[in-house]
Design a protein that fits this description.
alpha/beta; three-stranded antiparallel beta sheet; 10 strands; 44% helix
């Protein structure tokens, strides 16, 4: 009998696991996103509205946009001077606004439904430490300040990291999901945003603490970065990431798999160029088959659209066609039609 999607996912991410086929994207996981922290921090994000988030950043969400985005201008930065960040940045108080057990009841009920249906529950933490910094001051300032104001930038990143740790701890302690998908993009299509040693200096230890708490409490750590992160894949595994979700095909994924030796599972590898208005089913299937053929044999691989959540392709048929081709690959390769 074929493994269930839940069994398959757990076997895939196990270092010495023996999955019977490839997972179809997020098929084993069901997001639980109605927790009070998500509602408090992201409830303003409504299609067709431009609103400020809890940090004061303007969030644009036009009707025809695939998702909400920060809109930071020269005259509208929350933090125009990182050396005076304490004057400008007001860290949202999660404990004061989200700790009441009554507020967690709906999320706990949703999680119970998810598990009863045979899925792994997946908590969600958007806007990671580096992302939050450029939400506050703009992308150029966030990068430049790492070089020209390293002490003040380190202090600000530390404050954001403390907030993220409280977020993670509250999510784990109150909901205790099976997995948490945590977002922070660290690179462009073909390079990191900063040298690997800069990432290690400013971000690595903060994430070790955050992800360490998740791991200590039995939560699967999934990190979303639809980025080029190849130079730091060993570091990512070292700080506790079980699954790198969003890995772009511009990474040498086979080389990453060889370097990792099963210490971290790579979830992605399908070129996001297929997620477009003029796509054809064959285009999506061909790219999905290429990814399965190329990365599947090395193991610890889950073919997936790099976008950062279940069924989050921009065009509605993208994920349907990907899943159909992964199933066809599994039938051809493993004799399992599931």
């Amino acid at each position: 009998m074929a493994m269930t999607p839940k069994e398959l996912f757990l076997e895939t991410i196990k270092k010495d696991g023996h999955p019977d086929r490839l997972c179809k994207q997020f098929e084993a996981l069901e997001p639980v996103m109605n927790d009070p922290i998500s509602t408090f921090t992201r409830g303003n994000r409504q299609r067709g509205k431009n609103t400020r988030d809890r940090w004061g950043t303007m969030i644009y969400f036009p009707e025809d946009a695939p998702g909400p985005m920060p809109h930071v201008t020269k005259d509208d930065k929350v933090c125009p001077d990182v050396t005076k960040w304490r004057e400008y940045v007001k860290v949202p108080d999660l404990e004061a606004n989200c700790a009441d057990p009554e507020l967690w009841k709906d999320a706990l009920a949703k999680q119970e439904e998810v598990r009863a249906a045979g899925y792994l529950s997946m908590g969600f933490m958007g806007t990671g430490i580096f992302e939050q910094s450029h939400f506050l001051m703009g992308f150029e300032d966030a990068l430049l300040n790492l070089m020209i104001e390293p002490e003040a930038t380190a202090e600000l990143l530390g404050a954001i990291a403390d907030y993220r740790f409280i977020y993670a701890k509250m999510l784990v302690d109150n909901l205790h999901p099976d997995a948490i998908l945590s977002h922070d993009d660290w690179g462009s299509h073909d390079n990191l945003f900063f040298p690997p040693d800069t990432w290690r200096e400013f971000l690595k230890e903060h994430y070790r603490k955050i992800y360490g708490y998740m791991k200590e409490n039995g939560v699967i750590v999934m990190h979303h970065a639809d980025s080029f992160c190849q130079p730091i894949v060993k570091d990512m595994a070292e700080i506790g990431i079980d699954v790198w979700q969003g890995a772009l095909s511009s990474n040498d994924i086979v080389a990453c798999q060889e370097e990792l030796q099963g210490d971290m599972t790579i979830m992605g590898g399908i070129n996001s160029v297929i997620d477009r208005a003029d796509q054809t089913e064959q285009l999506v299937r061909d790219e999905t088959r290429r990814a399965c053929d190329t990365y599947g044999p090395q193991g610890h691989y889950i073919p997936c659209n790099p976008s950062g959540l279940k069924n989050s392709g921009i065009f509605p048929l993208t994920d349907k066609f990907i899943d159909a081709e992964v199933q066809a690959y599994n039938k051809d390769t493993y004799g399992i039609d599931a």
